């Protein structure tokens, strides 16, 4: 098994990338940019898998099961999650985008 530090660094790197990719975007710009959506989705998948592999016994204030669950939703329900469609508000990617930018 890889050292837990590797998983933590992967999670951190992905979070930083998502921030870089979406910096300066509003919802309208994000919904029109499929390349950025794809990059964000991929990094969310990596975060979710790293959380699953890392374990959930650290930082009990973090909703680990929800983080890992987000990965499952994105990976298995991707056809309904294209943010540019009319389901933006209810899609898992759309919800994640709103949470990230309302914090």
List the helices and strands and how they pair.
Elements: H1 4-22, H2 27-32, H3 34-54, H4 64-76, H5 92-102
Helix pairs in contact: 1-3, 3-4
Describe the structure.
With 103 residues, the chain is mainly α. It has one domain. It has 5 helices and no strands. The protein has helices at residues 4-22, 27-32, 34-54, 64-76, 92-102. It is globular and about 40 Å long. It starts with a helix and ends with a helix.
Number of domains: 1
Helix content: 55-70%
Shape: globular
Number of strands: 0
Strand content: under 5%
Short description:
This protein is mainly α. It has helices at residues 4-22, 27-32, 34-54, 64-76, 92-102.
Keywords:
103 residues, mainly alpha
């Amino acid at each position: 098994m890889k050292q837990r530090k590797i998983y933590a660094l992967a999670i951190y790197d992905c979070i930083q990338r998502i921030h870089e990719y979406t910096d300066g975007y509003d919802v309208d710009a994000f919904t029109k940019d499929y390349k950025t959506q794809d990059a964000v989705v991929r990094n969310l998948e990596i975060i979710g898998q790293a959380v699953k592999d890392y374990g959930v016994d650290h930082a009990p204030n973090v909703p680990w099961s929800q983080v890992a669950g987000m990965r499952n939703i994105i990976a298995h329900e991707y056809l309904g999650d294209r943010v540019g469609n009319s389901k933006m508000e209810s899609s898992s990617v759309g919800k994640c985008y709103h949470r990230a930018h309302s914090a």
